[in-house]
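re the bet — no i am not wrong, look at it urself. input seq straight from the record:
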Amino acid sequence: RRLACGDVEGRLEVIFGRVRAIQAKSGRFDMLLCVGNFFGSASEAEWAEYRTGAKKAPIPTYVLGANNQDTLSYFPDVSGCELAENITYLGRRGVYSGCSGLQIAYLSGTEAQEQPAPAHSFSAKDVAELKMALLSTPNFKGVDILLTSPWPRDVGTFANSVGEIDTKKCGSKLVSDLAASLKPRYHFAALEKAYYERLPYRNHMVLQETPQHVTRFIALADVGNTSKKKYLYAFSIVPMSSMDPAELVKQPQDVTENPYLKLRKEAPKSKAPLCAEEEPACQFFFDLNKHQVKKRPSDGKDRGDSQPKQAKKPSQPTGPCWFCLASPEVEKHLVVSIGTHCYLALAKGGLSPDHVLILPIGHYQSVVDLSSEVLEEVTKYKAALKEFFRSKGKRYVLFERNYRSQHLQLQVIPVPLDLCTSEDIKEAFIAQAREQQIELLEIPEHSDVAQVAQPGTPYFYVELDTGEKLFHRIRGRFPLQFGREVLASEVLLAQPQRADWRQCAAQRPEEAAQARAFRREFEPFDFSLRD
């Protein structure tokens, strides 16, 4: 059960009050999806109460990014981030996959009218990359939900009356192209201060193509509008991946032709050109010992590999990934060591200056998904970090949250040996979990996470440098900063103000200096420099 709403324009009390009223009457909903302008010109006063934690959204709320220059400052991370408790900015473009299998594609901003595209706009390249990420998926049928702020151009073709809105002039051609390609079952948009529920349309040519599911386009008005136009839409949806194929492609009686038929016919004639600055989708190593960074493809030839390995290949991300090493989104000034399959990077907004991440170079979502070669190198990095931190009078705590993340991040935080014992750390995690009604169980000795969690299972786990592990299977909501909160608490590092990484982020020159210092100290323990 989901809710979608139009332009909030900073009226947080109005929208969340309405959500509470609906839930009191009709029962709980799983999430609120917000399209259009979430923030307005006078948002700051209301927003401050949510940003500081004085107030909390009643259900998990997912929002699109800025549509104008004035509200850009509310979105600190282009790749998406938690803005406040229960309020998440999805990001510039990509796909959100829920643990139920529900796929939500999203595109933030309005169509760019100039080049280069402003930060609050999307370009043809953004749309092409989002399409490519999904259409290259084996057996792709479509997405469950598409979220955009602008309407798609020509959505009123073959449709019921749109009222005063001229769909041949309003909206975005690029959004039409995206909708035609991604075939969403529901497409939500806003910005026009109007409510419009279009008749469902086909995603196949009758008698020429195999029947496919229909799309329902719904435009929502601005929240709290005086004209009483509908701005909140409740709906239930079963993920496409869980549906019976025959049930999925049932055609309702009022179904119309596809409004983007012209686009579909033109699509095979034109292929998106490759941009000159785009790098091929292969893995790279970065030689950090040279003054100038050089790249070389990971073909294995210089590693002495004479036999090809039958390895589990990393998947392709469904949108821009902040942690795939070949991705332009990676903040490479934080990278401190690169192996064959994994790399180390300082954590942005770390709990301490030597808080590091172990990350796979290719795209893997969790430890459970790793191939044996990658897992072996993860183990080598753990051993090297244990030896390194022990030489500095510290022990490490490692944790992973496989929930609302798309690339594996093993967080490794050192704790002074004289501050607490391993047993103290374990008890702190168990006690805080109990307080928050989280069942944190100890994994038997000589067992690992892959033996208790299947691929795709949301989970949280903690590992001490003694090898002891605690595991929680996530079945509902889970506090995103739980691991940091425990370690930052008074019983351990006693720095509760650092529980939220956004409060700890440093300027880029300071981060780069910390990375250089860590690299120098870690060098005697770094096996990647010797292999």
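see?? Residues 268-311 have pLDDT under 50 and may be disordered. told u. also The first helix runs from residue 12 to 26. so pay up
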